[in-house]
Amino acid sequence: MNKPILTGVVALIPVIFLSGFVLAQSAPVQTLRGAEVDEPIPLDQIHKNVEGRMQRNYRQQPPLVPHSIEQYQIDVRTNQCLSCHDWTKAGERNAPTLSMTHYLDRDGNELDHIAGTRYFCNQCHVPQADAPALVDNVFEPSSGN
């Protein structure tokens, strides 16, 4: 390629880049929740809690929480889930006991208290809700095998 053509191509690169950037910035952004970012929306209008227990969709799916956890405190010092679901209290509170896997450390040693790797329940367990899918999904539950 000769020098004038190469110079012209190099000069066009920033122009094309900037015009693409301007075009991308002018495209309207649509929200998935149906409101502006700074507009508060009561969650109970969007996602209704489902009473009773929902069936799991695959073998190792963490159970869904069949009650609201909106006011539950789960932080480094406190985990309100354990006030009912810890093995020492589950029987008297008529709540399901945590799986024994929650009482194993990284090396597989049994502990008398919940393992630190399983302490923050809402990493895996979420409240069950009748929520619309945000994206198309063709997932089908397993047959139970």
Give the tally of β-strands.
Answer: 2
Distance between the termini: 65 Å
Biggest sheet details: 2 strands, antiparallel
Largest beta sheet: strand ordering: 1-2
- Structural class, please? mainly alpha
- Chain-averaged pLDDT: 82
Q: Residue ranges: pLDDT <50 for 5 or more in a row?
A: none
What is the strand content? under 5%
Q: How many alpha or pi helices?
A: 4
CATH superfamily of the domain at 51-130, called what?
Answer: Flavocytochrome C3, Chain A
Q: How would you sum up the global shape?
A: elongated
Give a brief description:
One of its GO terms (biological process) is anaerobic respiration. The protein is mostly helical and about 140 residues long.
Describe it.
This protein has 145 residues and is mainly α. It has a domain at 51-130: Orthogonal Bundle (Flavocytochrome C3, Chain A, domain 2), CATH 1.10.1130. The protein is built from four helices and two strands. The protein has helices spanning 3-26, 43-46, 82-85, 90-93, and strands at residues 48-49, 129-130. The protein has a two-stranded antiparallel ribbon. The longest helix has 24 residues, at 3-26. The mean pLDDT is 82.
